[in-house]
Structures are given as C-alpha cells and as structure tokens.
C-alpha cells in the first residue's frame, strides 16, 4: 500500500450545521486517506454522517448555516475554504458524484444526451459534433442499449436502472480521478443493483479512478471494496481492510451491524443480534463514546471519555473503543 | 405440514387487473398458494412483480378481478358488507411506511385502541389494560409514551406501534408488506426478532412480502418467488435458497449481495429488465431473459408442478433436470 500514490487526504474534517436547536455536528472530526485506483467503502446507518462526509469532500454544502473545519486535500487541491469558482474547476474533472436518486439528479426536461454533452462542451471545450459522439460513446460504455437512439430521450422515458447508468455516464464525462457514489444502488432491484455495481467496477478499472462507495448495505461493500470505514454518529468507529473489518472487527457496533443483518447463507429463523435503542440525536451527543448507551460492554470510562481511533495489530486497521472485542470474537470468514 | 390439514388461507387463480380495454395491466395474473396455520410464507420478487398487489387483494384493499381466496374455509371474494367486516378482523396488514400508516394527530394509546373502539368490543377499563399490554409486548412503555403523538416517534418505534395495533383484534393472519424495508439495520434486527417472538406468543400465521432475499429467508418457513404477476417457484425456504429450480430464482439469489467478503462474486448477472406487465411475453413470462429458453417456452405457458414434496416450479426446464442432461452447465 505504501507504493501507491495518495489521491485524497482528509484530516480532522468536521461539518457542523447551525440549527435553531443548536449546533449539529453531522461530521465530527474524520481523518483518512485514499489511494489512486482504490475503492473505499463508507458504511453507516441513517444519520451517521456518511452522506454529509461525501458531500463535504466534494465541497457541496449549503452557503449558510454550516461550518466546515479541517482539510480535504484532493490531488493537491484544498477543498475546504475554496471559492465556488475554484471548486467548479475541479467538479467533473477531478471529482464527480453519483447520487442515490437517479430521477432527481437528472434534469427531467432535458434530453439525456444533452446532459452529458453539457459537461463535455462547457468543461472540455468540445464542439457540438465531437461532444455528441463522445456522449454516445459514454452511453455505450455504461451499457445502455442502442445509445444513439437513447441520446435523445428524456429521463422520464427510462427505467430507474437506466437512469442511474445515465447519471454514471455524466459523472464519467470529465474523466474524474475520484468518483463519489452515494448509495448508488439503493432503491434499485437486486438484479439491477448487481448490474450497476459491476458497471461501477468495470469503469473504475478502465478509467483508473478511485471510488468511494457510500452505503448502508454491508453486502454492497463486502466484495467490491479494498477498505471500509464504519461510521457512527458522525465519527469513524472502525476502519481497515475489508477483510479485517468483516472477519476481525473489534468495535462492538461493527459486530452489531454485521450480525444484525440477515444473511442469505444462514438457515431460516436464525436469531439476529439486535442491539437496543437507536442512533443518538446529534444535537445532544453523549459525553463519552456515542455508542455507549447501546453497548453491552460499556463501562464508566465509555460513558465519560470519548475513545480515539487506535491502531490494532493488523496493518492499517484502527478502531475507537475502550473495551474492544477480543480478536477471536470476529465472525469466522 | 401434512396434506391432510386444511390451510388457513387458500388462494386459487387470483388475478388483479387494472384499467380496461387496451390499457389493461394484469398486476397479478393467476396466483395460487396455501398458507398453513402457524407458518410464515415469504413472498419475494422485484418491484412491479405484483407481490404487494397480491397482499392487498387478500385484504380486498384492491378488488380481485377473479379467483378465489378462502380464509378458514370461508370465501372472501364473494362476501361483502358486515360479513366482510367481520372476516377482516381475522387478518391484519402492516405496511412499509410506518410513519404514514399512523395518524400523526392521534395519541399512541388511541391508535392502538382504534380497532377495539371500532368494534366496541371491550369496556373502558379493559381497553386500557389491553392497550398497555399490547404496547408492553412491542417494547413501548405505555406509561411514558402512551400519551405521545405518533409524529414524535422514529420509524422503528412507529413500526412497533403498527404491530401493536394490528394485534389488537387478535388476528389469525398477519400480512406484512415490506415492513422492515425503511428501517436501519440495527432497528430492522429488533423488529424481525420481535415479529418472531410475537408470532409464537399470539399463534400468528404470516404472509411476509419483501424484496430483500436475506430478510425473507430469515423469517420464512416457505418462500414463493414472483415474476411479472405469477409465482415461478414455491418451496421450503432452505431448499429453495440452496437448490433453486427456476432459473429466475437462481439469478435473483445470485444477484443478492452477501455481507461476506469471501462470498463469490457472481459473474452471471441477469441482463435486461423485466418486460412491461401491460404487454407480457407469450408462454413463459421469464423467457425473454432466460438463457435456457426454447421455442416451447414461447408457445406453452409452464404451470406450477411438484418437483419435490412441497416444492413447486413453473418451468419447462427446471434446473435440476437441466444439470442432469448437460453436466458441463
């Protein structure tokens, strides 16, 4: 891993929204790095800050009532604090994003081809004919049948899976180095989900990009990522190679996520590991570990002092926990 | 589950057609199954396959176009008025969106008591104790939360309240339509465990409709797979998942993502998308996407036939027979 070039360095990144009820720390101090050609998974439940984190990396946040601190260094460009104009220069060319809902991320009254053209003409300065030819190439790349005809349909005429392919095509138009995919397959059927994930993997290899896959579904990241970040209440609670996180996790929350999700390979009526309660309200986070109120291993120190990410024995595997699970506790792979 | 016992619910050739004349959409196109007392039948399929419409037709929230639904030997499709109202207390439904299925302006204890109030079946002090008991059963403290409004609860808690309400009339059959799809993993596990406990305690029979294969397997004794308005395979959960007979079931299982880095990444991914139910293919409805389809599949519609005891498949070329013929495949 040491030979690979680092593409993205996130350091102490915090995003706090000002709400009428007080400051809401959606992301509370997150640090990690991403190498070129790497696929990183960010996993968490709703409200864990995974979406805000990915949007902050992109530099997408409301103009008002939000405070971002820390640093996001993307290929040498500091995103935090950059002007809109400066960020516009990297959007599409350095970093692009695929959102969950393929309907609302496309303009419903604009032909799909034109939406791909736009970026080619405005950002890459292509002329009309070259842009159209390239857009059709991109539609073909993302597996849309008869791309030349689909070039001039409206998003409403396409199915959800096809629309997500178009969104991916627009994201790829500027050949970005980093693709942020925020729940790209949630809301799609399983067979379509498999198609889209395979597509993301094949375009990643072909265009040598790095991909950040943000999802709530552990199944999505299990076989498609090299590293995983597990988030809870705006912070990283465990991070490591995909294999380590699945098989040798130390943080009780990671275990709850893994053993709480039903598996196709388990016999029917398998009892699930259910942890009580629900994720905390970010407006009034507990003083110590945010997971302590739901954790069966919690002791006084967990309730009073927040654990920092500490490296485990394995290479690059870190977790934030005062009472980590013993190594053997992990689910046998 | 021997053949001699009478099923609790017997569904035969159920069809639901929306629209008329040329714009006919057959959402459910001839579905037959039995649910025996005390078992859970899972119903899986992709969006648009008609699984929710099937559930709704059983409750007669949408009217079945033809076919027969028998609950404990009583025909549901021909009853109406008071008799239907009476029958409906025997079956209850839990919906996907827990927040919109509860009235945001009513107190939790009144929401749970509503079925009792409708039927004026209990006295007021008994009503209170029944409601408190139900809320306790689903893990909501009636002393603290009974007087709060539904809008003050999270999705998981709302789903608990929905469960309490559905149990108020002591139904025999519970139809759960995507009841955990909107919940986070940690909350989903709580609700699924709760459902298993209550099923035993209240002697419930469940029809569990969901798109998530892992969730369905976890709760079901038997599973039915639907494609484009028809059941293509039905069988015991473990057998069906281990040795699927219908090619569609196999593809569906292959596409399911397992939370295990060592699970094989399936190279074989089903191509294309389901055809429109407005204009389904002739013969077998899956033939347009099936790698094993022949002319027979286009000409002749396969019927659900027994391939093993309790395991039925609607396919001219079930996978086990195919493997025997060409070992290379």
Quick recap:
With 333 residues, chain A is α/β, with parallel strands linked by helices.
How is this structure best described in words?
The complex is a heterodimer of chains A (333) and B (329). Chain A has 333 residues and is α/β, with parallel strands linked by helices. Chain A has two domains: 6-94 and 178-187 and 209-264 and 271-329, 3-Layer(aba) Sandwich (Rossmann fold), CATH 3.40.50.300; 102-175, no CATH class. Chain A has helices spanning 50-58, 84-90, 112-124, 128-141, 147-150, 160-172, 190-207, 218-222, 242-247, 252-260, 300-304; strands at residues 6-19, 22-35, 39-43, 66-74, 77-78, 95-98, 178-182, 210-215, 227-232, 235-241, 310-311, 318-319. In chain A, the strands form two sheets. Chain A has an eight-stranded mixed beta sheet, with helices on both faces. In chain A, strands 2-1-4-5 form a four-stranded antiparallel beta sheet. The longest helix of chain A is centred in the middle third of the chain and has 18 residues, at 190-207. With 329 residues, chain B is of the alpha/beta class. Chain B folds into two domains: 9-90 and 171-325, P-loop containing nucleotide triphosphate hydrolases (Rossmann fold); 101-168, no CATH class. Chain B has an eight-stranded mixed beta sheet, with helices on both faces. In chain B, strands 2-1-4-5 form a four-stranded antiparallel beta sheet, with helices on one face. The longest helix of chain B is centred in the middle third of the chain and has 17 residues, at 185-201. The interface between A and B is large, with 50 and 46 residues.
Q: Which secondary structure elements does this structure contain, and how are they paired or packed?
A:
The complex is a heterodimer of chains A (333) and B (329).
Chain A: E1 6-19, E2 22-35, E3 39-43, H1 50-58, E4 66-74, E5 77-78, H2 84-90, E6 95-98, H3 112-124, H4 128-141, H5 147-150, H6 160-172, E7 178-182, H7 190-207, E8 210-215, H8 218-222, E9 227-232, E10 235-241, H9 242-247, H10 252-260, H11 300-304, E11 310-311, E12 318-319
Parallel strand pairs in A: 3-8, 3-9, 6-7, 7-8
Antiparallel strand pairs in A: 1-2, 1-4, 4-5, 9-10, 10-12, 11-12
Helix pairs in contact in A: 3-4, 3-6, 4-6, 6-7
Chain B: E1 9-18, E2 25-35, E3 40-44, H1 51-58, E4 66-71, E5 74-75, H2 81-88, E6 91-94, H3 108-119, H4 124-137, H5 142-145, H6 155-167, E7 173-177, H7 185-201, E8 205-210, H8 213-219, E9 222-227, E10 230-236, H9 237-242, H10 247-255, H11 295-299, E11 305-308, E12 311-313, H12 319-325
């Amino acid at each position: 891993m040491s030979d690979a070039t680092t593409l993205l360095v996130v350091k102490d990144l915090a995003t706090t929204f000002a709400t009428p009820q007080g400051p809401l720390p959606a992301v509370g101090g997150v640090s990690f790095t991403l190498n070129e050609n790497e696929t990183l998974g960010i996993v968490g439940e709703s409200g864990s800050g995974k979406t805000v984190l990915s949007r902050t990396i992109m530099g997408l946040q409301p103009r008002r009532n939000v405070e971002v601190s820390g640093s996001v260094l993307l290929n040498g460009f500091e995103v935090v604090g950059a002007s809109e104009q400066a960020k516009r220069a990297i959007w599409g060319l350095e970093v692009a994003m695929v959102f969950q809902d393929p309907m609302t991320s496309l303009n419903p009254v604009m032909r799909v081809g034109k939406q791909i053209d736009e970026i080619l003409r405005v950002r890459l300065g292509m002329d009309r004919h070259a842009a159209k030819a390239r857009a059709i190439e991109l539609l073909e790349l993302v597996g849309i049948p008869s791309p030349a005809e689909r070039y001039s349909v409206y998003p409403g005429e396409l199915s959800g899976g096809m629309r997500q392919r178009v969104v991916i095509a627009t994201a790829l138009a500027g050949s970005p180095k980093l693709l942020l995919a925020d729940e790209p397959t949630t809301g799609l059927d399983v067979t379509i989900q498999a198609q889209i994930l395979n597509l993301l993997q094949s375009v990643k290899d072909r265009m040598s990009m790095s991909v950040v896959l943000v999802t709530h579904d552990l199944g999505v990241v299990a076989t498609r990522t090299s590293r995983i970040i597990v988030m809870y209440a705006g912070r990283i609670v465990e991070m490591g190679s995909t294999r380590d996180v699945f098989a040798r996790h130390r943080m009780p929350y990671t275990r709850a996520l893994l053993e709480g999700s039903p598996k196709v390979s388990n016999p029917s009526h398998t009892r699930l590991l259910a942890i009580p309660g629900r994720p905390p309200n970010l407006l009034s986070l507990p003083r110590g570990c945010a997971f302590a109120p739901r954790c069966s291993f919690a002791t006084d120190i967990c309730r009073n002092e927040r654990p920092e990410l500490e490296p485990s024995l394995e290479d690059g595997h870190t977790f934030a926990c005062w009472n980590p699970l013993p190594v053997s506790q992990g689910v046998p792979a | 589950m021997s053949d001699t016992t009478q099923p609790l619910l017997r569904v035969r050739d159920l069809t639901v057609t929306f629209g008329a004349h040329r714009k006919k959409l057959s959402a459910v196109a001839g579905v037959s199954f039995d649910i025996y007392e005390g078992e859970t039948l899972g119903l899986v399929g992709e969006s648009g396959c008609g699984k929710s419409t099937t559930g709704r037709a059983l409750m007669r929230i949408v009217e079945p176009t033809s076919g027969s639904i028998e609950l404990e030997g009583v025909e549901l499709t021909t009853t109406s008025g008071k008799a239907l109202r009476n029958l409906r207390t025997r079956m209850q439904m839990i919906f996907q969106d827990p927040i919109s299925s509860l009235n945001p302006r009513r107190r939790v204890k009144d929401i749970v008591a509503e079925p009792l109030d409708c039927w004026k079946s209990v006295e007021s002090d008994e009503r209170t104790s029944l409601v408190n008991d139900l809320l306790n059963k689903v893990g909501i403290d009636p002393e603290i939360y009974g007087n709060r409004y539904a809008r003050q609860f999270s999705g998981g808690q709302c789903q608990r309240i929905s469960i309490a309400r559905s149990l108020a009339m002591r139904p025999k059959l519970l139809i759960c339509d995507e009841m955990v799809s909107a919940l986070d993993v940690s909350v989903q596990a709580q609700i699924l465990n709760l459902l298993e406990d209550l099923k035993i305690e209240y002697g419930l029979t469940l029809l569990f409709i969901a798109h998530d294969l892992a969730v369905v397997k976890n709760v079901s004794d038997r599973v039915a797979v639907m494609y484009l308005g028809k059941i293509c395979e039905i069988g015991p959960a473990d057998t069906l998942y281990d040795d699927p007979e219908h090619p569609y079931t196999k593809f569906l299982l292959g596409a399911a993502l397992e939370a295990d880095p060592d699970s094989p990444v399936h190279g074989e991914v089903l191509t294309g998308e389901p055809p429109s139910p407005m204009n389904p293919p002739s013969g077998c409805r899956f033939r347009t996407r099936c790698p094993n389809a022949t002319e027979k599949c286009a000409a002749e519609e396969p019927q659900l036939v027994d391939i093993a005891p309790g395991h039925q498949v609607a396919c001219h070329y079930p996978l086990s027979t195919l493997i025997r013929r060409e070992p290379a495949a």
